Amino acid sequence: ARIPVLCIDGPTASGKGTLAAAVAERLGYHVLDSGALYRLVGLAAERAGIATDEAALADPAVVARLAALAERLPVRFGDGRIWLDGDDVTQAVRSEAAGMAASRVSALPAVRAALLALQRGFRRLPGLVADGRDMGTVVFPDAPLKVFLTASAATRAQRRYEQLISRGEPANIDSLLADLEARDARDRARAAAPLKPAEDALLLDNSALSVDETVQTVLSWWQRRQ
Ligand code: C5P
Predict the structure, then answer these.
(1) Is the CB of 34 under 6 A from ligand 1?
(2) What is the pLDDT of residue 226?
(3) Which of 31, 65, 159, 195 is most buried, judged by most C-beta within 10 A?
(4) Average of pLDDT values for 134-160?
(5) Residue from 34, 38, 116 to probe ligand 1 pocket by mutation (most atoms less than 8 Å from CB)
(6) Rg of the chain in Å (alpha carbons)
(7) Which residues fall in the annotated binding site for ATP?
(8) Diameter of the chain by CA atoms?
(9) Atom 11 of ligand 1 has which residue's CA nearest to it?
(10) What is the pLDDT of residue 201?
């Protein structure tokens, strides 16, 4: 039998990361935070002095450099921390700037293709919980359970706001809302692996659910799918 994978896809700040971590903990599974990989490509590009604005990305030479970077991403994961080229970038990958850079570089098919093998390598026994935008549609199409997690834009902006404030970072609810709507629009509109539920995904809107209720719902679906 294949190693089990539970996919959680959905828009920005829908609570995928929290849900994936909690479900993985309960099942004793590994976790793949695929968004972190795209964020790491954005960070690595910045450090290498490769611009990722729209004009730069229109240049095939820039795209080729980014794909090469993604192909040999000098990244190491462990103990809940992420190192890029030996530097601890656990905080830096979560920044809004890294998220916006990720959203731009992730629209490039060459970058997506370069990250496929790395992502699939996370599928190890006893199992994997994978969170992202295309886990169920592209990376693990044979997964026995695909959850598409959503919440209203207002709910998601509020959650992101509270997360930033609790970390002592400055935050503005209106600009967070505008940023997440821009990012979702780009993720949905792109030709390469657009954000959309897999045909066999189960939809879950957690706007009015607690974290615990969301986790329990997914665990009960998983038990029935196994
Ligand atoms: O989930 P997170 O906010 O960390 O992802 C950052 C960006 O990376 C997303 O806005 C999206 O553009 C991109 N991404 C993607 N495919 C994934 C995960 C993330 O395109 N599987």
Answers:
(1) yes
(2) 72
(3) 195
(4) 96
(5) 38
(6) 17
(7) 10-18
(8) 49
(9) 103
(10) 98
CA distances from 63 to 60, 99, 109, 111 (A): 5, 18, 9, 8
Distance separating alpha carbons of residues 34 and 106, to the nearest angstrom: 11
pLDDT at 163 over 90: no
pTM for the structure as a whole = 0.93
Respond yes or no on whether ipTM tops 0.95: yes
Does 45 have pLDDT greater than 80?
yes
CA of 25 to the centre of ligand 1 (A): 22
Pocket test for ligand 1, best of 103, 128, 137 (most atoms within 8 A of CB): 103
In one-letter notation, the amino acid at residue 53 is D
Q: Which residue carries 């992420």 as its tokens?
A: 82
Instruction: Give the neighbor-by-neighbor strand order of the sheet with 81-84.
Output: 75-78, 81-84, 87-88
- Percent of the chain whose predicted confidence (pLDDT) is above 70: 100
